[in-house]
Design a protein that fits this description.
There is one protein chain. This protein is an alpha/beta fold. The chain has a single domain, classed as Rossmann fold, CATH 3.40.50.300. 41% of the residues lie in helices and 21% in strands. The chain has seven helices and nine strands, in the order βαβββαββαβαβααβα. Strand 5 and strand 6 form a beta hairpin. The termini are close together. The chain binds guanosine-5'-monophosphate. The site of guanosine-5'-monophosphate has 14 residues, from strand 5, strand 6 and helix 4. Guanosine-5'-monophosphate (5GP) binds next to strand 5, strand 6 and helix 4.
Length: 188
């Protein structure tokens, strides 16, 4: 099997529940490891350095880019987000399945670098449900919610670039679907 197939890239609009689905997948299958991204956005309550993200300043992030330490990076809603190289290559070579939860531009860049990787797009049941989830989360102000909703509409148009698109109407069902995709890809 091509080791790139151990790379699972999950995207979906902010509020589609992709982090929750991936958490559920990893609870059921702890052998699957999560790639921890770097970001310049502020830490949210409940998040931790090196667990949810590697939080850093613009200067630190830009230095990592110039040293060639980022596999891909984007500017999302005014903040940098990127996948450190160290999160991916060694693991897939060692036979470990790695999941990246990243936005659409980053996913397309990963697919260019790793053509055999598996890209899955997670959709919310509806835009109304997405707006309700974003507001209900209470972690962003209304202006940020509006920015994220606008971005979500753009992102939904990108779903055809993915190998699979699945609907998060129920977290554990969706996590199982994700696992089934992974197993099928790795046994092809
Ligand atoms: P949040 O601020 O809600 O944690 O993340 C905002 C968006 O950035 C989400 O769509 C998330 O998946 C995406 N994201 C997180 N890490 C990365 C990364 O390393 N690269 C890219 N391209 N997007 C990322």
């Amino acid at each position: 099997m091509n080791e790139q197939r151990r790379l699972l890239v999950v995207s979906g609009p902010s509020g589609a529940g992709k982090d929750t689905v991936v958490k559920c997948l990893r609870q059921a299958h702890p052998e699957i490891e999560l790639s921890v991204s770097a970001t310049t956005r502020p830490m949210r309550p409940g998040e931790a350095q090196g667990v949810d993200y590697y939080y850093m300043t613009n200067e630190q992030f830009e230095e990592k880019i110039s040293r060639g330490e980022m596999l891909e990076h984007v500017n999302y809603c005014g903040k940098y987000y990127g996948t450190p190289k160290s999160e991916v290559d060694k693991r897939i070579s060692a036979g470990i399945t790695v999941v990246l939860v990243i936005e659409v531009i980053g996913a397309a860049n990963i697919k260019r670098l790793y053509p055999e990787s598996t890209l899955v797009f997670i959709m919310p049941p509806s835009m109304d449900e997405l707006a309700a989830r974003l507001r209900g989360r209470g972690t962003e102000d209304e202006a940020t919610v509006q920015k994220r909703l606008a971005r979500a509409k753009e992102e939904l148009q990108e779903k055809d670039a993915y190998d699979f698109a699945i609907v998060n109407d129920d977290v554990s069902r969706c996590a199982q679907e994700l696992y089934d995709i992974l197993v099928a890809r790795q046994s092809e």
